[in-house]
Here is the input.
Amino acid sequence: MRRDYLLLSGLALLFFFPFLGSVHLFDWDEINFAECAREMVQTRDWMRPQIDFEAFWEKPPLFLWMQALSMKVFGINEFAARLPNALCGWATLLLVFHIGNRLHDRMFGWLWALAWLGSLLPHLYFRSGIIDPWFNFFIFTGLFGFIEFRWRFFKHQKSQSFWVRYRHLLGGGFLVGLAILTKGPTAYLIVMLVLVLYWAKYRFKGKGYWLHLMYFSLAAAVAALLWFGVEVWMHGPWFVQEFLAYQVRLFSTEDAGHGGFLGYHFVVLLLGCFPASVFAIPNLWGDKECEDEALETSTLNSCMRCDFATWMQLLFWVVLILFSLVKTKILHYSSLCYFPLTYLGSVTLWRAIKWSVLPKVTTFLLPTIGVVLGLAVAALPFLGQNLDLIRPLFASDPFALANLDADVQWELWQGIPGLVLALASVAGAYFWIKGRAWKTAQMVFAGGAIFVGGTLLFVVSNIEGYTQRAAIEFYESKSGEDCIIKPVGFKSYAHLFYANKQDPGPDKTVDDLPGLYYNKPIKPTYFVAKINRLNPLPEFPQIKEIGRKNGFVFFEWKP
Here is the structure.
């Protein structure tokens, strides 16, 4: 067992930690949290999140504390901003191996860990600076605490202390409270929907279930009040009221600027969680335990596996349906589904290895999706060398056309990660047909892990060269200058982080628009706009254009 944990730690170290700082943070979802953390470090105000040195009520501070502590150790940079999620990836591999080994066997533990390592978005998010990996980790571990408690409940003895009997329940609730402190009360909503639906499945029967929900909720509230309560006590209810109002807006409107069709998250999970998703499909509903498995498994173990599969199915459908109904559609909103998807996919592989149960849907989807995704990425270097082939696609978007003028160097070998995914998927399908499911798992998950790592290193860095690097390099060039930088016509946090903006002092409105256009500046003032959204800057003769690059236009107003 110790050897397994060491091997998994080695894989996490190999795949999640190298080159974390090789690409700039992406605007918005990476930079906004990193900027909050930077301002925490600079102002030493660890209680109230800030953006542009004004209250930022969109998120609680737990993940920001992690990033800020990382920045205190490693400096204010991309590596420090992404390090907490790499640590989360390491913890996740160890956790799922432990649970899988306990519920099934050592092979299953490895399958579940490899499913996380070799699936696309689950791997990618551990190399990012977004908030969701830790949010999902706390929710899943909190829910598992409740499940563990229920499994042990009927073995409890009255002579045992309250803590011994209820520690898993209270610990699980506390972890859900940490999830609330990470991203908000959506964590509690998701978990309670799963718990109540599980209860409803058994017609609301179950000794003490209602009381256990109350204890669980109380523990979650205690954890959440560690910050929410202190914030209200120190500053009054305004900040918390704005935070809760923002959560409601996310559910009821396209508040974050992202809409989408009803099946958006289904497509995201099918493609983004590949290859685990194609193995999970047969187990998304019902119990597919075969006769041989039932005969070879003890009744208790069989019941626990069946029960855990039910919990995972409920978690998957609750998250998928909930965020399909929410009007704001963002890629990572459904990322909590990665836990049930990777588990249910591992169940398919495990049964295929041990009892040769080979669902036909996998035979078709595995090579189809793998080849399409792999060849699409493999083709990017060729398209990068022949941009005239794709320019007509952006004819109606001057900014996108100007992006393509970036000096980005492509080599055909940079498409190798895509070819690896395509070949691994075909090879995996071949071994699947031959009944060698363990070989399939090795091929597709190794291919997926290599694909994500290689794509981040060789492809994503080049794509970033088109989308935002020109603006970020401009901001970096001003980081040592006492100046004001303001994006015009688009929302961004990059200028704050990469220009290392300092606290302006008591008057936080000194660089607010539109006043900044009319009041003579007290320091050099720079405006950054997109080529198709220059207004109203050309209307002010005192504001001079100083350069253009890849669709971004830079202006200066000297004091």
